[in-house]
Amino acid sequence: MPVLTALREVQLPLVALMLLGGCLTKLTRTLRTGSVDAGLGPTALFPMRMRRPVAMSLSAIECGFGLGLIITAWGIGGTAMATCVRLGTSLLFLVATSALIELRAVRPDVGCGCFGDFSKAPVSGRTIARSALLAAAALSTICLLPIRVPRTGGAGLELLAFLCIELLVVGALSPEVGEGLIRLGYSEPCELRDVPSARTIATLRRSKQWRRYAGLLASDAPVDVWRELCWRYVVYPSSYPDRQADIIFAVYLQHRHPVIHAALVDSGTGLRLPWPGGPRPGGLQRAGPRAAVPWPATAQLPQARLPQPIPPQATSSSQSASGGVPAGLAVTPPRPQADLPLSNDL
Q: Which run of H or of E encompasses 24?
């Protein structure tokens, strides 16, 4: 097999692998965050209203061209279809190269978004060179005859060697490789884990707890969101009869299958309220010394919204020596009670 022909044949699986890999990582990030346009660098060049359709179109085009390169490589669809797919792929990478150059000049702080969360590093010369290399690889496949199985073992080893060498070159031009190695060898403490509030709320809305208590919510928008160490608390107003109440969700900050607790409290006092209608199907767990994941001990309800009730003895007896706060009043806001009804199965 001529060396030039073997080198051109190697480009088809390489370019298809890059396209499908990029599409798969974007899809994984979308399923995790609930946002299709978050983290896609080139979309920052478009107006806000256009970013979502542009991101969806880009992912669909990548998937279509990746599958098209694999299908037409064996002669399926004829020469005309194969040429159209390869021309389209070449044009895609040429446009991507130009967009990365523009993105580096306009938004130097934004990553390329080529491989979802792995492409957060700002666009560099390596990223642009990789895109240009893939554009050249796609152009070299135009007018290439259908691929045939190598007739000899030596020809197969030659193709494999070319593929490995080019993968090493692409890897050297990919900042995502370093990010992937860091993630494999390091697990950051949950206290330092960066999980955006939007991702926490999106995860909460997909959970069983949200579906179980959605009928008790008076609004779809939270009235308060805060974080303490490994937990994020989301407060929603509740349609509890005869009084103002809140449903507080505590979401553990991890990317996959986080533990979620729920509690119903009085808006004025912060005291636990019984769930309307009694226990619900599946059973509600109470936090205790043997609970697998108890309500976080550091949790404090918002001080401004949930004041501490005044003990009876504080109203009739001693003030402090300076005439200030009564001696019996607690200074810190109340913490969730140990017997709050919690739900922690996703």
A: helix 3-33
